[in-house]
Amino acid sequence: MAPALLTAFVGGQEGPWRVERIDKVIGPTLPKVDRLQIVSGNDRGLGRSLWVLRGVTSNMRYTERDEANELSARQEGLGRPQSSMAALIPIRKSEAWWELAQDERRAVFEEQSRHIGIGLEFLPAIARRLHHCRELGEPFDFLTWFEYAPEDAQRFEDLVGRLRSTPEWRFVDHEVDIRLSR
Ligand code: HEM
User: Fold this and answer.
1) Of ligand 1's atoms, which has the minimum distance to the CA of residue 127?
2) pTM listed for this prediction
3) Ligand 1 within 6 A of 130 CB?
4) Are strands 17-26 and 85-93 parallel, antiparallel or unpaired?
5) Which end of the chain has the least Cβ crowding within 10 Å, N or C?
């Protein structure tokens, strides 16, 4: 596993990603900004910003061996030149979710919602990275990041729509959808 990577998503007037829109999905939205910068490792060079969201990559919680093998075989990394579109989707889950035991959360996540099963259908078109932030005292529990080519934009909408209609999303109590291009 790659070492944990602390990442800051900095909303302001600088950075390679142009913010196309910020949609409120559940709960309050984030202030509109023109640009997004992604800063890895530390806070130096954050520049002038309206908001900063921080998260850290981590070990897998719910993925079983066969699923991990399937994901590794199909997924591609971030930074592909044709991936000129991106989405940053910060998500918080409810207390009811965090009160579940690990096996109960896995059952909702995969047996009931097929999060990995659905996600696999969209690889390698969509590249992704999951950041955790619940333990950092941040406003969200997760910062999800996705990159894709313009010709896969509609597929990304289909993916997001399918996941949002699953039992897992009944536990989401705050979600903002930020779309970007470069
Ligand atoms: C490209 C297709 C996708 C694939 C292959 C995928 C795969 C995964 C996997 C394997 C995990 C579990 C990691 C673990 O074991 O801890 C996960 C977690 C997560 N994914 Fe996805 N995902 C996809 C798309 C999405 C999308 C579009 C969203 C948001 C709209 C999303 C939101 C999340 C969240 C919030 C978690 C953390 C869940 C938790 O720990 O409670 N995923 N995803």
Assistant:
1) 1
2) 0.97
3) yes
4) unpaired
5) N
